[in-house]
Write a structure and sequence with these properties.
This protein has seven helices and four strands; from the N terminus they run ααααββββααα. By secondary structure, it is α+β, with helices and mostly antiparallel strands. It has one domain. A four-stranded mixed sheet has the order 1-2-4-3. The longest helix has 25 residues. The protein starts with a helix and ends with a helix.
Length: 190
C-alpha cells in the first residue's frame, strides 16, 4: 500500500474512535434522575472490535472466511489476545456476554459453565480491575471498564510498534486481508 492509502486508512480508523469516544461520553453523561446507559456503548465498542478483527483476519461473514476455520468468537478473542494483551478466558467472556448475549437478547446474560461455575459481570466507565474476575458467593464476576476497553482497543490499533495499524503498514499479507475484508464489507446487498 502506498503512503497516501495508509494515511486514508489511518484517518478512517481515527474517525471511528472519535465517534466511539463521543458516544462513551454520552453513555455516562450525568443527568439528574436518570441512570447511565452502558449497554449501547458496550455494543458499539464490541462492534468496533468485530470490525478490526475482521480486517485483521480478512473476513467478516463466516461464509467468506475461506480456509480460516475460526469462528467469529475465535477471531475476536484472537485479536484481543494478540493486540490488547488480554487473557484468553476473560476475552471469551467479554465476547460471549457483551457481544453475543447482549446483541441477540438485548441484555448481558449470566453464563453457566458445564463444570457448574457461574459467570456474571460488573460494568463501569473505568475499572481498576478491568478484565479481572473476582469470586463472590461462588459467582465469578468479570470486571469490565468500558472506557478501559476503548483505550486498550485504541492502543491495540495505534501502538507504534506492535499495533494493528503499524503491522498493516508493513505487512503485505495483512494488507491483502484488509483489502479482502473491505471488498466484502463494500459488497453487502439486500
Amino acid at each position: 500500500m502506498d503512503k497516501q492509502s495508509l494515511e486514508k486508512i489511518k484517518e478512517s480508523f481515527e474517525d471511528r474512535f472519535r465517534s466511539l469516544r463521543n458516544d462513551f461520553k454520552r453513555a455516562y453523561y450525568e443527568i439528574s434522575n436518570l441512570q447511565t446507559s452502558p449497554f449501547p456503548i458496550i455494543m458499539y465498542s464490541l462492534s468496533r472490535l468485530d470490525y478490526f478483527s475482521s480486517l485483521w483476519a480478512g473476513w467478516n461473514e463466516t461464509s467468506k472466511r475461506g480456509s480460516d476455520n475460526r469462528t467469529q468468537t475465535q477471531r475476536m478473542v484472537g485479536f484481543m489476545v494478540k493486540f490488547l494483551n488480554y487473557p484468553v478466558f476473560e476475552s471469551g467472556l467479554v465476547v460471549n456476554i457483551f457481544r453475543h448475549k447482549l446483541m441477540h437478547t438485548s441484555e448481558p446474560r449470566i453464563l453457566n459453565k458445564k463444570t457448574g461455575e457461574i459467570y456474571s459481570w460488573v460494568v463501569s466507565p473505568k475499572q481498576n480491575s478491568h478484565m479481572k474476575t473476582i469470586i463472590v458467593h461462588n459467582i465469578h464476576f468479570l470486571n469490565f471498564g468500558v472506557g478501559n476497553f476503548i483505550d486498550d482497543l485504541y492502543n491495540a490499533i495505534f501502538d507504534n510498534s506492535k499495533g494493528y495499524f503499524s503491522q498493516l503498514s508493513h505487512d503485505v499479507n495483512l494488507q491483502k486481508k484488509y483489502i479482502q475484508c473491505i471488498n466484502e464489507l463494500n459488497t453487502y446487498s439486500l
